[in-house]
């Protein structure tokens, strides 16, 4: 709590968590945090916020709320979702509020995933909190088509142009011709090469899973390998920051957390891969396990 500078009331609120919370439920909980108490709902903003929440003619937020926007919490929720959904807001005070919400929200979401990882009984809430922390960090939804907005020099309008041209993944941007990219973005050479270059030097991961022959009815042994597939390219130049890492998180059908670890890029850059053998107990509901590698 002290490390992330989190309010006591926020911590108390998250002690009520059930462990099965969805992304939508976590955003609702976060919107209620003490960290956003200085965000005020002004009467003249309600029209814009209600349009963001529900409008049949315009793009609206991913998880609309019931009824009209009438509380500070609903406003915070609405602005978080609008930002993650790349929905433009033409109001200066709301843009300022959004900036403040994200500065605090970055801390709250990172604290939340650490907090949830301290218990073994809330795998799905932990998984969603890791996804949410990633969303706050990138200011994009985890399934957003606007992936290019994470690159330097690419703002909302250029990323819109890329989405309209079908460039909705880093792979597609890497494969396109640099001159064609400049035409799409209405920029002069060597802009296309610079963008392709920065995508080329993003870390690319591969996850291999193998069940080892030693097993019983109740226990399985699994070998996990995380590979940096463009390990050679990253030796000279990297687009991601030095502190970038992936989180490997594994849970079973009973919502139990089996394994959770941050793997730093700096570790993977030494040899190109990371290996770990783990034992998994059979869950009561089924023998399925969920293995997630989150950048």
UniProtKB/TrEMBL annotation:
One of its GO terms (molecular function) is 3'-5' DNA helicase activity. Residues 1-294 form the SEC63 domain. One of its GO terms (biological process) is meiotic cell cycle. InterPro entries: Meiotic_Crossover_Helicase, Sec63-dom. The keyword Hydrolase applies. Keywords: ATP-binding, Helicase, Hydrolase, Nucleotide-binding. Gene3D superfamilies: Sec63 N-terminal domain-like domain. This is HFM1 helicase. The lineage of its organism: Eukaryota, Metazoa, Chordata, Craniata, Vertebrata.
């Amino acid at each position: 709590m002290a490390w992330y500078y989190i309010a006591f009331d926020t911590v108390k609120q998250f002690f009520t968590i059930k462990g099965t919370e969805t992304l939508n439920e976590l955003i609702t909980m976060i919107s209620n945090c003490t960290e956003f108490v200085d965000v005020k709902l002004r009467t003249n903003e309600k029209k814009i916020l209600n349009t963001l929440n529900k409008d049949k003619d315009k793009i609206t937020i991913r998880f609309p709320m019931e009824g009209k926007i009438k509380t500070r919490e609903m406003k915070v929720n609405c602005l978080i979702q609008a930002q993650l959904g790349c929905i433009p807001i033409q109001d200066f005070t709301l843009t300022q509020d959004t900036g403040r919400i994200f500065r605090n929200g970055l801390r709250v979401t990172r604290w939340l995933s650490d907090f949830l990882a301290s218990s073994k009984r809330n795998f799905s809430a932990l998984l969603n909190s890791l996804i949410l922390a990633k969303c706050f960090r990138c200011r994009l939804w985890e399934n957003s088509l606007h992936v290019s907005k994470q690159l330097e020099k690419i703002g909302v309008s250029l990323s819109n142009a890329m989405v309209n041209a079908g460039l909705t993944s880093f792979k597609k941007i890497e494969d396109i011709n640099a001159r064609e990219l400049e035409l799409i973005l209405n920029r002069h050479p060597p802009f296309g090469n610079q963008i392709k270059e920065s995508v080329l030097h993003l870390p690319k991961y591969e996850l291999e899973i193998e069940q080892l022959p030693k097993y019983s009815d109740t226990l399985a042994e699994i070998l996990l390998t995380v590979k940096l597939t463009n390990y050679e390219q990253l030796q000279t130049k990297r687009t991601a920051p030095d502190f970038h890492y992936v989180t490997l998180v594994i849970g079973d059908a009973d919502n139990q957390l089996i394994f959770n670890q941050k793997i730093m890029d700096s570790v993977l850059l030494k040899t190109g891969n990371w290996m770990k053998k783990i034992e998994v107990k059979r869950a009561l509901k089924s023998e399925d396990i969920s293995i997630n590698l989150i950048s």
